[in-house]
């Protein structure tokens, strides 16, 4: 097992490098960029960035914005005609585009290997501080969504498999299908309208994870206030997630229950509980565990974007989306790097969980 873990960790290095290389190449051919964004801001041709333009190393406002003599300046950047070439060169230097692409890529890899993500182009803060600032929101949403989703769907899937074809199975299937069919963001809007002061009740808050007076609350009050803010966003995220996992669990259990070893176990006089949780469970749960890495990464990062937007929760999903729009490449690549590492590590943990659920699995006898 130790040799397998070492091989998997060693393979993470070229995998992450490949992901970063492909993304870096795509960005080089993407239209627009931080230099063009600054030019558009200064010439009044674009909307403002997420925050003031100051984080990459200087104040651009004092630089000349027109060429000597008023002659237009040819430039490779759209909208740069009429700007001083020295100003454009300074912009390129500030953003690091005065160096060849391969030098920038290898420098990024070296910095990222030391978890040095630099500073945001359009926020006066380091990328690490920015990610840490947004992390509590994503952890809160992802952690509780995963716990509640799996806590509901696995027992429900088992119960449906045991009662296959019963009235309970049909009613719960109807609820699951409806839950799966309703998009999470649409259900979130419905919850806002109904319970967050939209048109009916104002039972739940609509912004942030805590109230303004959170610091003055007692420990019990802080805990209650925290969960009070989480009720609506977590409900919105759990709706579709638990539906998928519940059906997956049911089908996996049904497939295992019909196998010969279950019939043999029952013929030996084992109790139904012993058959289900002593024999069927460890085999049926393998397929559920296999889908955990994708569900984990999606819950913590990508899957929470619309929910964060609707409930005004400033987390990693919203940060990544805004960074792409603003061409804030240090934040974009740092998010990608962190997501990739987390996904690979969780995937390894998922494989190790196989051996915990079913000790008969031995990864040392297979190729990575």
From TrEMBL:
Asked if the keyword Disulfide bond belongs to this entry, the reply reads no
Would you say which domain of life the source belongs to? Bacteria
Family membership: Belongs to the binding-protein-dependent transport system permease family.
Q: Does the keyword Transport apply?
A: yes
Q: Which residues cross the membrane?
A: 9-30, 141-162, 174-206, 226-249, 284-311, 331-350
- Organism encoding this protein: Ancylobacter polymorphus
What is the protein's membrane topology class?
Answer: Multi-pass membrane protein
Spell out the protein name for this chain: Microcin C transport system permease protein
The cross-references to PANTHER family, in alphabetical order and at most eight, read:
INNER MEMBRANE ABC TRANSPORTER (PTHR30465), INNER MEMBRANE ABC TRANSPORTER PERMEASE PROTEIN YEJB (PTHR30465:SF66)
**Mind telling me which InterPro entries this protein's record contains?**
MetI-like (IPR000515), MetI-like_sf (IPR035906)
Sorted alphabetically, which Pfam families does this protein's record hold? Answer: BPD_transp_1
- Keyword terms: Cell membrane, Membrane, Transmembrane, Transmembrane helix, Transport
Q: Where in the cell is it found?
A: Cell membrane
Question: Mainly localized where?
Answer: membrane
Q: Where is the ABC transmembrane type-1 domain?
A: 135-350
């Amino acid at each position: 097992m130790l040799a397998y873990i070492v091989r998997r960790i060693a393979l993470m290095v070229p995998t992450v490098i490949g992901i970063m290389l492909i993304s870096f190449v795509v960005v080089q051919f993407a239209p627009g960029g931080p230099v063009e964004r600054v030019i558009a801001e200064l010439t009044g041709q674009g909307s403002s960035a997420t925050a003031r333009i100051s984080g990459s190393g200087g104040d651009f406002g004092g630089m000349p914005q027109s060429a000597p003599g008023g002659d237009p300046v040819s430039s490779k950047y759209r909208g740069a005609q009429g700007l001083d070439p020295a100003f454009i060169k300074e912009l390129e230097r500030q953003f690091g585009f005065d160096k060849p692409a391969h030098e920038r890529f290898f420098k990024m890899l070296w910095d990222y290997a030391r978890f040095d993500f630099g500073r945001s182009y359009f926020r006066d803060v380091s990328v690490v501080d920015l990610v840490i600032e947004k992390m509590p929101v994503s952890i809160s949403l992802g952690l509780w969504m995963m716990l509640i989703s799996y806590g509901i769907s696995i027992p429900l899937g088992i119960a449906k498999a045991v009662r296959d074809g019963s009235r309970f199975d049909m009613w719960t299937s109807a609820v699951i299908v409806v839950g799966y069919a309703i998009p999470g963001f649409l259900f979130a809007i419905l919850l806002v309208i109904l319970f967050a002061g939209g048109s009916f009740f104002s039972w739940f808050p609509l912004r942030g994870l805590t109230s303004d007076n959170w610091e003055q609350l007692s420990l019990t009050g802080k805990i209650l206030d925290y969960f009070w803010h989480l009720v609506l966003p977590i409900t919105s995220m759990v709706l579709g997630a638990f539906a998928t996992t519940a059906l997956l669990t049911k089908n996996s259990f049904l497939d295992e229950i019909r196998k010969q070893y279950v019939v043999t176990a029952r013929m030996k006089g084992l109790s139904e509980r012993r058959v289900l949780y002593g024999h069927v469970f460890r085999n049926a749960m393998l397929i559920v565990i296999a889908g955990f890495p994708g569900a984990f990464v999606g819950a913590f990062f990508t899957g929470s974007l619309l929910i964060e937007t609707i409930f005004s929760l400033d987390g990693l999903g919203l940060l990544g989306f805004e960074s792409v729009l603003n061409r804030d490449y240090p934040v974009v690549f740092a998010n990608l790097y962190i997501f990739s590492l987390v996904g690979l590590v969780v995937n390894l943990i998922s494989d190790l969980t196989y051996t915990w659920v079913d000790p008969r699995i031995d990864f040392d006898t297979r190729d990575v």
